[in-house]
Amino acid sequence: MRTQFLVAAALVASLDSTAARAMEQAAVPPSGGKVMTDKATGTFEVKVKPLPEDVKVQGVAVGRMSIEKVWSGDIVGTSQGEMMTAGAEVKGSGGYVAIEMMKVKLKGRSGTFTLMHHATMKSNADFKMWINVIPDSGTGELTGLSGVLTIIIEPGKHSYVFDYSLPGAM
């Protein structure tokens, strides 16, 4: 379990903002009606903790982590999620997937939505991460939200850029 935690920590800590930006995908706006396309920026604090082991698939080294974040800036609120990590034979290589439930205000609009993470790292150098809003997961004033979140990690600071589309201009 400690190895999977170290892989997860290395994956999160190794994010290069240039590589993450290069992997951004365009948000697909919902069809029909007016659509607001915008960008949100800010910072967040994160806690990642190991979760108890599940029944394992024979020969598969997988770790599970909880994610808790406090968001500030254009996104204000909290999120919780679960991350599944896997290392590789080559030191520094691995990957993770995660589901993160957001309970936030996005530029003053309240609601919830779900993010899906997918990331890979090769030998501590080639880091690729995709974080997308799960379609139709938005609730409240965030119903119809779509978008791509980019995480930027600098020494001692986590920040984000969220390119999104939302039905109905403000």
Description:
The chain has 170 residues and is mainly beta. The chain has a single domain (2-53, 60-167), classed as SO1590-like (AOC barrel-like, Beta Barrel). Helices cover 11% and strands 56% of the residues. The protein contains two helices and eight strands. It has helices at 2-13, 17-22; strands at residues 35-50, 62-73, 75-87, 94-106, 109-122, 126-133, 146-154, 157-167. Residues 1-31 have low confidence and may be disordered.
Compact summary:
This protein is mainly beta. It contains two helices and eight strands, in the order ααββββββββ.
Topology record:
Elements: H1 2-13, H2 17-22, E1 35-50, E2 62-73, E3 75-87, E4 94-106, E5 109-122, E6 126-133, E7 146-154, E8 157-167
Antiparallel strand pairs: 1-2, 1-8, 2-3, 3-4, 4-5, 5-6, 7-8
Average the pLDDT over all residues and give the rounded result.
Answer: 82
What CATH first level would be assigned?
Answer: Mainly Beta
| Beta-strand share of residues | over 45%
Query: What's the tally of helices?
Result: 2
Overall strand count: 8
Q: How does the helix and strand content classify structurally?
A: mainly beta
What is the CATH architecture assignment?
Beta Barrel
Biggest sheet overview = 8 strands, antiparallel
Comma- or semicolon-separated keywords:
single chain, 170 residues, mainly beta, AOC barrel-like, 8-stranded antiparallel sheet, 2 helices
